Amino acid sequence: MTIYITGHKNPDSDSIVASIAYAYLKNELGEEAIPCRLGSISQETEYLLNRFDFPTPQLLEDARCTLGEIELLPATQISQDATLFEALQTMKQAKQPFLAVHDQNHKIIGMITRNDIANLGVEDTAYGIEMLQHTKPSDLVKTLNGKEIYIPEHLHLNGKVSIVALSSHRALRYQVQERMVIVSDDPIAQKELIEKGAGMLILVWCDSIEKDVLEAAKQHECAIILSGHGSMNTSRYLYFSLPVSALMSTKLITFERSEYVEDVIRKMSRYRYRSYPIVFEEQLCGYLEAGKMLYPPTKNMILVDHNEFSQSVKNIEKASVLEVIDHHRIHDFTSTRPVYFRNETVGSTCTIVTSLFFEHNIPIPRKLAGLLLGAMISDTLNFQSPTTTQKDIDLAQRLANLAHETIDELAYDIFFSNDLSQKDINDFLQEDMKHFEITNYQVAIAQSIIPQSSLLSIQEQELKEKMEAYTKRSGIDLYVFALTSILENGTYFYISGPLAQQLQQNLDQTHFFPNILSRKKQIVPLITNWIQEAN
Questions:
Q1: 111 is in which domain, residue-wise?
Q2: Which of 72, 286, 340, 451 has the fewest CB atoms within 10 Å, measured from its CB?
C-alpha cells in the first residue's frame, strides 16, 4: 500500500524537501511513497523547487483513507443496450454476480444482477410477453448465435412464443398469430405458419430456406431467423435477448471515490447490499465489497520534521504511522505498534534524510542534492543558528560537491528570493506557524525569516489588529510573531492574546532581540521562561 510522507502544517522548506527526498529514497528502496504537504508553500520553498526542477508535493488534507486509495473490485460494467445474455457472459468472466450499467456517455445509470435475470424465469408470463414485444431482431440473432434471413420494415409481434413440434398435422393446430414461432427445417410447416400470421419464424436445425418460403415471408411480413441452437436452448436463450435496460435497477447506492472509508462504512450499515459501485464524475471506478470493510484499511504515513500530532495532518491518530524522522522535541507522540523513530539533535531534518541516503548506499542525484542543501541552509540560517551541528556542516559540504553549488552563493539566493513587496501581513503571520502547549497554555509561534528588516515596512497597529483577530478566532492563549533578520542576526518579537499583557514587560520599544534566531532552541525556551516567570 502507498506510503504518504508529510511534514508539518504551515510547511517550511525543510519540511517540504525532507518529504520529497525521503519519498525518493523509499521508492529507490522498493517501497511506493508519495511526498505530501499540509498547506501552501512559501516563496522561498517555491524558489528552491523551481531552481532544482521539482514539482510541488500534493496537498494532504486528511489522514483517513479515501475509497480512491484502497483496493476495489475491477470496474467491470456493461452498456444499457447490451443483451441479458451478454450481461451473464460478462458476469461469468468477471466472477461476480452483478454489473453496473452505463449509458452512451459511460455514466452509471443502474445495476443488473444475476438474480434479476433469474427472476425473469419465475415472473408472471405476462411480464416476459411484454418484454419480448420490443426485442430487436439483431439482439435475437446475436443471442441465438444465429443468422438473419429476412426482417420486414414493420414487425408485428405480440411477445408470445410457440414451439412447433414434429407431427403429421404440422402447424394446423397452433395459434401463431403475431407470435415468435420456433420451428424445424420442414418447409411445408414453415410456409403454413407464415400464412397463418406468425410474426417471426426462428428456424432450428436448419441451414437454408426454400425460395417459396422466403417469398411467403416477404408477402406476409414475417421475419425469419436461423438459430445456432436446438429447440430447447433456443427457447431458453430467447429471453436473454432482452436489453439490460429492461431489467436493471435504477435505485442506485453509489459512493464517490473521494469519500472517506469510515464515512462510507457508516452509510453502508443502512443497507444490505454485498457490493457498491464507486464512481468519479458519475463514471465507474470499481466496486467496494461490504464484507472487506469489517477490517477497514488505514493510510500508511511517515512524519518528517515533526512528531506532535497537533502539528500534523487532520485525523493523524486514525492513520498507521510507520516512521518519524525529526529533529524537534518529542512531545505527545503515541502509537499502537512499534515505529521506526529517528530523532537527532541536528539543525535540519534534511540532514537526517541525507544521512539515510549514505547509510543505504543510495546515490543522491545532483538536483536532489541541491534541493537538500538549500533546505539545510534555510533551516539553519546558513549554519548560523545555534541548532547547527558539525554533522550539518559536514553533510552540507558533501551535498554542495554533489550539486556543484557554492554554499554561501546559494544561501544569498535563497534568503533574497522572497519578494517582500508581494506579501501582506497575513502572509507573514501564517507562513510558518507552529502550535505548542507550554505549561498548559496554547501558544502559536509564527516565524518569518527575511534578509533585513529595512526591506520590510510593517504597520504595527495593523499587525496588532490581525494578531488579535487570530487569537480570538482560534481561542489560543498567546500568539507570538517572530520576525528574524539574517543580516541583523536577531529577531523582532510581537505578541497578542490573553497572556500578552503579562508578558509585555519583556519587550522594549524596538521589540528586537539580538542573536535570537532559532525557534526550537531559542524562541520556544525564551517564551517558556517568560510564561513561567509571569506565573
A1: 77-120+246-294
A2: 340
What are the pLDDT digits (tens) for 103-128?
Answer: 999 999 999 999 999 888 777 677 77
Number of structural domains found in the chain: 4
Is residue 384 domain-shared with residue 426, that is, in the same domain? no
Does the model's pTM come out above 0.85? no
Q: What is the DSSP string of 367-436?
A: HHHHHHHHHHHHHTTTTTSTT--HHHHHHHHHHHHHHT--HHHHHHHHHT---GGG--HHHHHHTTEEEE
Q: Looking at the domain assignment, is residue 112 inside a domain?
A: yes
98 domain residue, yes or no: yes
255 and 398 share one domain: no
Paired strand residues for 325: 304, 342
Amino acid at 160: K
Kindly tell me the number of DSSP H helices and DSSP E strands found in the chain. Answer: 18, 22
Three-class secondary structure assignment of 354-385: HHHHHHCCCCCCHHHHHHHHHHHHHHCCCCCC
- Per-residue b/e over 73-110, b at no fewer than 16 CB within 10 Å? beebbbbbebbbbbbbebbeebebbbbbbbeeeeebbb
Q: Using the structure block, give the residue that is written with the C-alpha cell 497537533.
A: 310
| CA separation for the pair 243, 258 (Å, rounded) | 32
Inter-residue contact 499 to 477 (CB < 8 Å): yes
Q: Which three cell numbers stand for residue 243?
A: 436489453
492 and 384, same domain (yes or no): no
- Is residue 286 located within the same domain as residue 235? no
pLDDT of residue 17: 98
> What is the distance of C-alpha 296 from the center of its chain?
16
Together in a domain, 523 and 426:
yes
